[in-house]
Amino acid sequence: MTLRAIADDLAADFAACGPLATCQRLALQPQRAGRTVAIRCPWHDDATPSCTITIGPERTIRAHCFSCGESWDVLSLIAQVERLDIKSDFRRVVERGAEIAGRHDLLARLQLKAAAESVRQSLTDVAAVVARLKLSAAPTKYGVAIACPTGQHPGPCYVSRARSGVLWAKCKACGWSGDVIALVGAVRGLEREAAVQAAAEIAHVQVRPRVATPLPPPPPRLVRPSAPEPTYPDREQVLDLLGACVRVNQDEQVAAWLASRGLDADAVAIRDLALALPQSAALPRWARFRGRPWTDTGHRLIVPLFDSQGLERSVHACRVVDGSTPKRIAPAGHKVAGLIMADTMTRLMLAAGRWPEWAIGSARVVVCEGEPDWLTWAVRTPLYRCPAHAVMGIIAGSWTDEIAAAIPRGAAVVIWTDHDQAGERYATQIAASLRGRCSTLRGAIHG
Ligand SMILES: [Zn+2]
Ligand SMILES: [Zn+2]
Predict the structure, then answer these.
(1) Cα–Cα distance, 445 to 365 (Å, whole number)
(2) Cα of 69 to ligand 1 centre, how many Å?
(3) Ligand 2 mean position, distance from CA 135 (Å)
(4) Residue 10: CB partners within 8 Å, gap ≥ 6?
């Protein structure tokens, strides 16, 4: 088994465990977001998890950092985490990976390979080897001739030093050939492993015992829950959908809908708050309402939704035409808990994990409910002025303790949920989750 084959076997092992368990094995703190697992990138100084761990097209673990813009396989990931150089120390990387995965069988193979290599390097004296094997040998120009080690016929079998310096035996009569370990094995009738041991004794080489140190037990395999809990949509599909969108001022229908809400499409577009989904866009499976694509139902105003780390995880879609479907919807079959709409200031705050130092004054956050209110607030800050507050948009069910914890301590928070029963309840819930950390103020109707 070559080193490459062992490495492939190991990579398959990690793939079979899946991205989440791979992160746990490597003690990387995974953030679960939908089907995607993200970690803080080990290749750059990463404040937020920008490196996704997925199963790549080759059905193996793939790490992809959106900041570095690069992808790596699981062995590169192990090397990076373990501070090993994969080029010069590939063997050690594979060994470390096998230790982490608890693959004793692969470790044994690696040790056997290492032992065989040191034996080959030690047994380079032709005359000494044939003497130790008690073989009758006739000297030749390059080494010696012996009887064929297969014992089937007299030979001759030539034993000499190859250009690489190691011994090589080749039978002129039957074509049998092999290194010094194969020669010892053939002469003594031993399997490969026993042949390495026997050759090591001849060479006076210490072969390490099979397993030098006790290994930690392998981590438990992930058990699939019977009813999967709702997740966020696949992050790459979300990014693809956002990538397929155009600016809101480039789509007449979307711009007209914004205008009907008293919103200027240019003001929304320039602040990068929302996008327009083109009628022709190819949609992922979840961009549907009861089987009808959003392009068909008219849900074409797309607002990206961010998690508490400031990463785009999902989208929310508003219907910009008349119809009987809900005015605003989230991806079918996926959750929105923990996701919010974020203006630039909110995105910066979430990504940094604190209120930006360059901001004017202390932390001020406005929390609005629903797209129209959120957009109205978010376009208020003139572009030429440094924003003094972050405008966060929430939808039903999106507020969580995680989001609350992402608002900096000491911040003044204005809560602008709808002035109806549900909105009041939501406001109370938000205020309660911030109690003791932030001061809260309930936005007035005509504030
Ligand atoms: Zn990176
Ligand atoms: Zn032969």
Answers:
(1) 18
(2) 7
(3) 15
(4) 74, 75, 94, 97, 98, 101, 103, 106
CATH of 119-203, one of 1.20.1050, 3.30.30, 3.90.580, 3.40.50: 3.90.580
Q: Which pTM does this prediction carry?
A: 0.51
C-alpha 186 to ligand 2 mean position (Å): 11
Residues 6+ apart with CB under 8 A from 132: 202
Ligand nearest to the CA of 186: 2
Q: Of the ligands numbered here, which is closest to the C-alpha atom of 156?
A: 2
pLDDT, averaged per 10 consecutive residues of the chain (447 residues), comes to 90 90 86 79 88 88 91 94 90 92 88 87 88 88 89 87 88 90 91 88 73 50 52 91 94 96 94 94 91 94 94 95 92 91 92 84 91 92 77 92 92 89 89 91 68
CATH topology of domain 3-102: DNA Primase; Chain A (3.90.580)
Cite the residue boundaries of each domain of the chain with CATH code 3.90.580.10: 3-102
CA of 119 to the centre of ligand 2 (A): 24
